[in-house]
Amino acid sequence: MVLLPRALGRIRALAPNLVIDVIAANNLRDLMRREADIAIRHVRPDQPDLVARLICEATGHFYASRAYLATRGHPRSLKDLDQHDFISMGDTPRMVAYLREIGIDLDERQFRVGSENGMVGWAMAQAGLGIVPMDEAVAKHSPDMVRILPQTAISFPIWLTTHRKIHTSPKIRLVFDVLAEVLAQR
């Protein structure tokens, strides 16, 4: 995420000896087993031992590289999307189901490449491998990417989550609060 370095810079300025390891994956890390201390997610956790804060409702769109569009054509309607390749970020069947719920009917076979890491998926799209949904806050930093079907917006929540027991740790609280502030600024 393009906002994460700004947050990490602020954290380092406030706590220079704090060590932070970023796990960049779209899969749901198990905070209950302490595979991570803090998670940034697009779903609200339902475990009672987790503390979650809704940071914002973000907006995304479909994007493709200029090279991809020059080769495959620029889709002008939702119907045109069935002639294009897509890049999956995470669980493809879940992604397809979500898109269908919001009126975008794609087939799993259209997702020919993908990654658990959203930024790897974005890099694949930048390399011309297909169309990808992306947060507009990320996309605005990539001038060679073209928003397709600008009238088709995808909204999604951004949740910051941690385990209730470690939420009171001063170090965890500092990181949580700085992340919340920076992500809310988008």
Textual characterization of the structure:
With 186 residues, this protein is an alpha+beta fold. 31% of the residues lie in helices and 25% in strands. The strands form two sheets. Strands 1, 2, 5, 6 and 7 form a five-stranded antiparallel β-sheet that branches. The chain has a two-stranded parallel ribbon with strand order 3-4. It is elongated and about 50 Å long. The mean pLDDT is 90.
Beta strand %: 25-35%
Q: Please, what is the average pLDDT? A: 90
Low-pLDDT stretches are none
Identify the overall geometry: elongated
Task: Tell me the series of helices and strands, N- to C-terminal.
Answer: HEEHEHEHEHEEH
Q: What is the topological layout?
A:
Blueprint: H1 4-14, E1 38-41, E2 50-65, H2 66-72, E3 86-89, H3 92-101, E4 111-115, H4 118-126, E5 132-135, H5 136-139, E6 145-148, E7 154-163, H6 170-185
Parallel strand pairs: 3-4
Antiparallel strand pairs: 1-7, 2-5, 2-6, 2-7
Helix pairs in contact: 1-6
Summarize the structure.
The chain has helices at residues 4-14, 66-72, 92-101, 118-126, 136-139, 170-185, and strands at 38-41, 50-65, 86-89, 111-115, 132-135, 145-148, 154-163. By secondary structure, the protein is α+β, with helices and mostly antiparallel strands.
